[in-house]
Amino acid sequence: MAEILSGKVVSEEIRNGLKAEIEELQQKYPGFLPGLAIVQVGGREDSTVYIGQKVKNAAAVGVKATHVQLSRTATQDQVLQAVEKLNTDPSVHGIIVQLPLDTENDIDAHLVTNSILESKDVDGLHQSNAGKLARGNLSGCVLPCTPRGCLELIKHSGQSIEGKTAVVLGRSMIVGSPMSDLLTWNHATVTVCHSRTKDIPSIVKSADILVVAIGKTEFVKGDWIKPGAIVIDCGINSVPDETKKSGKRLVGDVEFAKAKEVAGWITPIPGGVGPMTVAMLLKNTVDQARKAWEKAGNSSRWNLSLNPLTLKRPVPSDIEVAQSQTPKNIETIAREVNLLSDEVDLYGKKKAKVSLQVLNRLKDQKDGRYVVVTGITPTPLGEGKSTTTIGLAQAIGSQLKKNVFACVRQPSQGPTFGIKGGAAGGGYSQVIPMEEFNLHLTGDIHAITAANNLLAAQIEARLFHESTQKDDALYKRLVPDNKGKRSFSKIQLGRLKRLGIDKTDPDSLTPEEATKFSRLNMDPSTITWQRVLDTNDRFLRKITVGQGPNEKGHTRECQFDIAVASEIMAILALTTSLLDMRERLGHMVVASDTDGNPVTADDLGVSGALAVLMKDAIRPNLMQTLEGTPVFVHAGPFANIAHGNSSILADKIGLKLVGEDGIVVTEAGFGADIGMEKFFNIKCRYSGLVPNAVVLVATVRALKMHGGGPTVTAGVPLPKAYIEENLELLQAGCLNLGKQIDNANKFGIPVVVAINSFVTDTPAEVALVQKFARENGAFDAVICSHWADGGAGAADLAVAVDKATSQPSNFKFLYDVKLSIEEKIEIITKEIYGADGIEILPAAQEQIDRYKRQGFNDLPICMAKTHLSLSHDPSKKGAPKGFTVPIREVRASIGAGFIFPLLGAMSTMPGLPTRPCFYDIDIDPDTEEILGLS
């Protein structure tokens, strides 16, 4: 007499275990909740009942099951769209499509099941899971529910599978075929029987393990069974039975009454395999949820494949170095840093956009450590800040073997083709492909240009239309009649609300209210919004618009700025979400009206369209270093007019991806008195992120210039002072280094000085800088050679940064934003620049007073000054004293969220030099290789 393998009993044990497992995982991962989505097409009663059982069982163990029901008229595309939506939902860990599909349309069920993300295919029907199972990769696939349940029942018999003879009746893709594979890879010798098999009884008679899924009522007779065999009956058939209230009863594919007399173990019908299928569905869902959360919350080391460097001497040009390295496919990097496939949109093979949904998926992940790279006051000799950022990231990844992200700005096309060249780093510490990095990338700057100029066009159009139309005509055109009905758009309702008009029916406004709504009454002399272009063009610094015959009499003098100077670029860098960006775009102030009130992009009705143009640009761009460590390239605001830092979003995503023990290295533009100060007081204020360390880049040559070294002229050999030992000059220049160390320490952050070494530096000179830095407040001072040696050349720097970031952080802001604008400006000039005070010129004071009246006092300050000196005077090197800073003008970027005082003449549109960089840039028409870019 056979022992009964009760699926009810075993499935209950499994469900109890799953409930306990979920509770344990919720302790480890707060917010852990496995999600199962069941897609049903049509409304078959039996399918609906079965789904109800699954939902009930799921709730009992702590799985959130969602029933997604589509109508019988649903098309194949609609079903696929429903599945795709679930694929991209991070709260859903398992998806099943209830079969058969009850539909009026032709739908390919195989196509539908294969459209489920492989990792969410908890039915195990995806061709990739089936293929892995067939190849024996059991740990790398999701096992189909019914075969997995059968296997569990076999194991509960207590008998070993290994070496046994197994027979599977039926070869369906849902049960028979995967069951055969499971038994094979559990070391049974398996025979599969089907409708064309000859002499099935004799084959069945040989089976130590018999699994029947043939769909024929009591097909297997008792005398076919080998004595002592394990019999798993997957069949479920209805037969007439007058003794039952329903008039029928359920039987299997095996003649149970006689088979149990011969078999050693047998499953009943009902209560055998059926309950196990649901239990395995829940187990698969919990398994996949656990894997997703472990992957998301895994702060252990990535399995990052590194690209080896082949170093050459002398170091070739930047583009030669970059093109000598073969980058990894960006898909590979995305997978290595635990990004999901649906979170990455490929732009070719070497760059990609990353979805902001990562932040939602990893919201419970602890952030990594946060490092900002800055420098001493820049000189024409260059300090190598970008190169150090990349070199340090390479060192942390390749030398310390830690998770690391570099986050850098996207360069403007203007300087790339003008005088500066590219900004991908240099030597053996670069972002690659450097051509992609420097040219277009994924079009973010083009999106900013389009959005900026759309707003500029609307300003001119609104001025024109208000000046050429009477009140009633203007109102009717702004709120037109559409098939006998007029209605306000959403953005227009927002304007009404700001005006205090509590009406939603356009026909209900009084003439006075309609006029108030329609007329912005912009004062043309107060318009601050300019057109932009990502090209250096000095002849666009002042232009006249409105010269066409149809605009005669409506001309206006204005200008072009370079695209990266647009406030929209600053917003991109400071935004924290799509919603936040939409609101910031709407808050941009473009002018004042004739009563002195601010006029915004929302008032002009254009901010929703701006957000649409920026919807892709908001997502960070994924690239890589020469050594294959990941890089986010995102946003590139001016460092003098704006805050000069890459995006908050890139940093936030990077900090989640690297995990608690990882490090994100970001870079601040220009010297510590500009980029770092704005990083702390503006970027960190809006991001809420707490930095752990500052890397302050210096060179012996640049410090000598700050000590009073001779002028450097492009194209002329360096004066001897810079290539021969001169300790006196160097000592004097170290005052600038000391002041910048002090500036960082004011924020409570440890400073590691990176001495970017050159072959002309002598041991005595380098030792002097190290000694000075350590004695003047630096946590450490380290010699680096990453330009020539890649990550290995920044290994000591990486160790020092790792130690510095392990210290407790005592970060604090320099000022309270609620202080007056004047007080905040004075604090920055005295504390950071070393000035005696400020002198606010009358025009600037008038602007400050206007911003206060308009309610903008409590914004942080973004000082616009020369980057070539700690003072406002570019000729003053070192650490000047005894100066007063004149504030000649004060402007506001309300959408970005800062007030920016101008300390001198700030050009927002560079010009091309006599010999621009583009003289050397070309393309090989045969290989399509970019030439001459640097």
Explain the layout of strands and helices:
Elements: E1 3-4, H1 7-28, E2 35-41, H2 45-61, E3 64-70, H3 76-87, E4 94-97, H4 109-115, H5 127-135, H6 145-156, E5 165-169, H7 176-185, E6 189-193, H8 200-205, E7 209-212, E8 230-233, E9 237-240, E10 248-251, H9 256-262, E11 265-266, H10 273-296, H11 318-324, H12 330-336, E12 344-346, E13 352-354, H13 357-361, E14 369-375, H14 385-398, E15 404-408, H15 413-417, E16 425-426, E17 429-432, H16 434-438, H17 444-468, H18 471-478, H19 490-498, H20 511-518, E18 531-533, E19 543-545, E20 556-558, E21 560-562, H21 567-574, H22 578-587, E22 589-592, E23 598-600, H23 607-613, E24 621-625, E25 630-633, H24 648-658, E26 663-667, H25 672-687, E27 693-698, H26 700-706, H27 727-745, E28 751-756, H28 763-775, E29 780-784, H29 786-789, H30 795-805, H31 821-833, E30 837-840, H32 842-853, E31 884-887, E32 889-893, E33 898-902, E34 922-923, E35 930-931
Parallel strand pairs: 1-11, 2-3, 2-4, 5-6, 5-7, 7-8, 8-11, 14-26, 14-27, 15-25, 15-26, 18-21, 27-28, 28-29, 30-31
Antiparallel strand pairs: 9-10, 12-13, 13-24, 16-17, 17-24, 19-20, 22-23, 24-25, 32-33, 34-35
Helix pairs in contact: 1-10, 6-7, 6-10, 14-30, 17-23, 18-20, 22-23, 25-27, 26-27, 27-28
Keywords: ATP-binding, Cytoplasm, Hydrolase, Ligase, Multifunctional enzyme, NADP, Nucleotide-binding, One-carbon metabolism, Oxidoreductase
Subunit structure: Homodimer.
Catalytic activity: (6R)-5,10-methenyltetrahydrofolate + H2O = (6R)-10-formyltetrahydrofolate + H(+); (6S)-5,6,7,8-tetrahydrofolate + formate + ATP = (6R)-10-formyltetrahydrofolate + ADP + phosphate
